[in-house]
Amino acid sequence: MKINCNDADEVGNPNSQIKYEIVEQQPAGERMFTVNSDGTVSVISSKLDRE
What we know:
This protein is low in regular secondary structure and 51 residues long. It is 0% helix and 12% strand. Keywords: Calcium.
């Protein structure tokens, strides 16, 4: 999965910086996913039920 984001601020402006972060998961517990700085979401848990 990949998350895309666009910002209309001028390039190089501090307001144009985009940060990706997973802030909460339901239900709480072992982390299932991670997201890197370019917006790529990866599964990190082998316990994820993919059905």
